[in-house]
Amino acid sequence: QLVESGGGLVQAGGSLRLSCAASGRTVSNYGMGWFRQAPGKEREFVARITWSGGSTYYADSVKGRFTISRDNAKNTVYLQMNSLKPEDTAVYYCARRALVSGNYDYDYWGQGTQVTVSS
């Protein structure tokens, strides 16, 4: 089970740190990703981190403002979000990236945490 936390209401320009804690299964051997879905829009990729934390990838829309990190000892992945904009408002989900039928895919998802950025 993946459980996100840390969402909330923040003013534009503010910061939030999201956490994704895994229970019942380890994620330390897997890449992890963050996604978001705004009302009326499709879910979109935000950031990804490899199992070791050695490589990270970001959507262009968040590059330079968001930072993904992980603590494998705590089985937790984080998303530090700075300089937040109203367009960052969405439900944020974390997911585990695994090899599924020969292709990498996100196979386990959290329930999401709401982030609302006011202007």
Word description of this protein:
By secondary structure, the chain is mainly beta. The protein has strands spanning 2-5, 8-11, 16-22, 31-37, 44-49, 56-58, 66-71, 76-81, 90-100, 103-109, 113-118. Strands 2, 4, 5, 6, 9, 10 and 11 form a seven-stranded mixed sheet that branches. A four-stranded antiparallel sheet has the order 1-3-8-7, with no helix packed on it. The radius of gyration is 14 Å and the shape is globular.
List descriptors.
seven-stranded mixed β-sheet; 11 strands; 119 residues
List SSEs in N-to-C order: EEEEEEEEEEE
Q: Strand share of the residues?
A: over 45%
Mean of the pLDDT scores? Answer: 95
What is the helical fraction, as a range of percent?
Answer: under 10%
Number of beta strands: 11
Structural class: mainly beta
Q: Count of DSSP helices?
A: 0
Apparent shape = globular
N-end to C-end Cα span: 34 Å
- Low-confidence stretches at least 5 residues in length (pLDDT < 50)? none
Radius of gyration: 14 Å
| Biggest β-sheet strands, sense, barrel | 7 strands, mixed
